Amino acid sequence: MLVKLEDPSLFSKVIEVISDLVTEVRIKINEFGMSITAIDPANVAMVRFKLPRSAFSQFETGDEVLGINLDSLKKILRRCSNGTSLILEKKDNFLEIKVTGRIMRNFSLNLIEIESAEKEIPTLDYSARVEISSPDLISSIEDCIVVSDACSFKVNQEKKFIVESKGLNSARSEFSSDEAKIEAEECKSKYSLEYLQKFMKGMKLCEKTILFFANDHPMKMDIKTEHMELNFLLAPRVETED
Predict the structure, then answer these.
(1) Residue 235: enclosing H or E segment and its boundaries?
(2) Once rounded to an integer, what is the mean pLDDT over residues 180-206?
(3) Any idea where the domains of the chain sit in the sequence?
């Protein structure tokens, strides 16, 4: 197996995002490209990342599964800078990593055994689909973080999308169809801000973020660019009396 990325910056940023949720992953590489699917230890959030074959300038591989410690990989990827390319090559029980630029730098990462059942993000029914500016969504979540540890995603009767936290203090952002593309029935669900804060790093990779949710239902978040797809699934926070 040997694959090459001419610009590894996006891959490096996604690994940073995923490492906030899990410490070890199985990276799959096959004829279609590279993918990662993982669930966090608390079984609250799930992440899926796909990097298609077209994103690579060189792609020589069969079906491979690489057990990787993300902290170790993340530290190596931080050694990439503007103008460098990245080569990943499997040799025996090691992943040989070359950072090529003015100077060729070589790293060797020990592959690990990870026992994990094959999991995919499930197909669920949603009442709401909201496509919104990533900076606007990030700002709304940051407002909620100031006052609470959970926030609600809501679509009201007027088909407005609302992000709010309520408690002793409160925060609320409201978006009409002028600010977001809203295809939804009236619904509401509450989610952990601890996890949404982790997802924000992923939102920063794309101008738009797409949300899918329903009443007291898991939320799916899609972040897509020309060369990658990043998805999150987040369990709802059980409602308690405010």
Answers:
(1) none
(2) 97
(3) 2-110, 128-234
Buried b / exposed e along 123-161 (16+ C-beta atoms within 10 A)? eeebbbbbebebebbbebbebbbebbebbbbbbeeeebb
Q: What was the pLDDT predicted at 118? A: 64
Question: Which tokens go with 88?
Answer: 């990943």
- Please state the pTM of the whole predicted model: 0.94
CATH code, residues 2-110: 3.10.150.10
Asked if 137 and 203 count as a contact pair (C-beta separation under 8 A), the reply is yes
C-beta separation of 125 from 215 below 8 A: no
Q: Topology of 128-234 in CATH?
A: Proliferating Cell Nuclear Antigen (3.70.10)
Q: What is the pLDDT of residues 85-116, one digit of tens each?
A: 999 999 999 999 999 988 999 999 999 998 76
